[in-house]
């Protein structure tokens, strides 16, 4: 977005919407999110002409700036563990009052339950998780915003991920978990969106971790139908794409291969006999171990096969 060029209106609105999403996920408050985005643009136009010209990726600069402002607000004295000020209601109206404005869309897509769960984590944990799992920012950008090393940020995000799974997942037998994973595989094989949606909780959430290395979805997908559609879209282009059940971190999950290379690993969290959360790892760095073992490219680090057959191609 060179300051001297005319930018298409669609690009301008998409950029602002993206920044609002970042701020809303970070703070959970629409009023504060709008203030953050306004301050972000003030800082952009506060730069000299030469300073702006040196920024080769304006959107990334804006996102990084917005993230830093949000983190500063999260750590202000008087906030709770999750950093929110003034309780849940501050600055937020109902969707009916919002009409057809952008916030009606944003609040409709963001899982209220997930945002509420993030209230219990520290500001640094929230920032690391949101920027990594929700927006897929690069590890270097996240480290700059949070003020920790890349390894520390990865650990912060992992702790939040583990906590969310503990909150949403209910104890289930290995047999039940295995049965649901197989059912998901079969529904995907049949390209049956209705069947796949029936296996998911109505408020199911899918996360797509591309790590900034592939063009994964920029945010989570909510709702059984939308999650089912996103998974079927991801697994399209058969027969070069194959799917099989496989042990993922000690529980039955799914491994996706494209031309025999592991391209995605999917883990499933179960609550109330349905799948509550779907975690799709697409980051090539995280898949490296899966592609460098004798059997499949991926049974290292405790990821031994749950069973070998029953894939589709």
Automatic annotation (TrEMBL):
Q: Which UniProt keywords apply?
A: Sigma factor, Transcription, Transcription regulation
Superkingdom as given in the UniProt entry: Bacteria
Family membership noted in the UniProt record:
Belongs to the sigma-70 factor family. ECF subfamily.
Q: Does the keyword tRNA processing apply?
A: no
Cross-referenced SUPFAM superfamilies: NTF2-like (SSF54427), Sigma2 domain of RNA polymerase sigma factors (SSF88946), Sigma3 and sigma4 domains of RNA polymerase sigma factors (SSF88659)
Boundaries of every RNA polymerase sigma factor 70 region 4 type domain copy: 112-162
The name of this protein is Sigma factor-like helix-turn-helix DNA-binding protein
Per the UniProt entry, what species is this protein from, by scientific name?
Streptomyces luomodiensis
Keyword Repeat attributed: no
Which InterPro entries does the protein's record reference? ECF_Sigma-70_Domain, NTF2-like_dom_sf, RNA_pol_sigma70_r4_t2, RNA_pol_sigma_r2, RNA_pol_sigma_r3/r4-like, WH-like_DNA-bd_sf
Family annotation (PANTHER family)? ECF RNA POLYMERASE SIGMA FACTOR SIGI-RELATED, SIGMA 19 FACTOR
Annotated segments matching region Disordered: 291-313
């Amino acid at each position: 977005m060179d300051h001297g060029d005319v930018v298409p209106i669609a690009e301008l609105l998409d950029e602002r919407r993206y920044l609002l999403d970042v701020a809303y996920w970070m703070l959970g408050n629409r009023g504060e999110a709008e203030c953050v985005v306004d301050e972000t643009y003030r800082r952009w136009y506060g730069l000299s002409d030469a300073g702006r010209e040196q920024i080769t990726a304006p959107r990334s600069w804006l996102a990084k700036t917005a993230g830093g402002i949000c983190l500063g607000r999260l750590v202000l004295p008087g906030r709770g563990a999750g950093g929110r000020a003034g309780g849940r209601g501050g600055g937020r109206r109902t969707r009916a009052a919002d009409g057809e404005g952008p916030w009606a869309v944003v609040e409709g897509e963001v899982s209220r339950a997930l945002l509420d769960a993030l209230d219990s984590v520290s500001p640094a944990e929230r920032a690391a998780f949101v920027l990594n799992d929700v927006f897929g920012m690069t590890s270097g950008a996240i480290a700059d915003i949070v003020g920790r090393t890349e390894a520390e940020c990865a650990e912060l995000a992992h702790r939040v991920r583990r906590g969310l799974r503990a909150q949403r997942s209910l104890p289930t037998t290995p047999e039940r978990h295995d049965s649901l994973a197989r059912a998901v595989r079969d529904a995907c094989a049949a390209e049956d969106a209705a069947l796949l949606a029936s296996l998911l909780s109505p408020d199911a959430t899918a996360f797509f971790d591309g790590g900034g290395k592939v063009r994964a979805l920029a945010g989570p997908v909510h709702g059984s139908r939308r999650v089912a559609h996103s998974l079927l879209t991801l697994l399209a282009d058969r027969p070069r794409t194959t799917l099989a059940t496989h042990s993922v971190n000690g529980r039955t999950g799914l491994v996706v291969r494209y031309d025999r290379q592991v391209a995605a690993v999917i883990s499933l969290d179960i609550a109330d006999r349905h799948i509550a959360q779907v975690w799709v790892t697409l980051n090539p760095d995280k898949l490296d171990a899966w592609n460098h073992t004798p059997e499949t490219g991926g049974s290292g680090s405790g990821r031994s096969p749950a069973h070998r057959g029953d894939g589709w191609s």
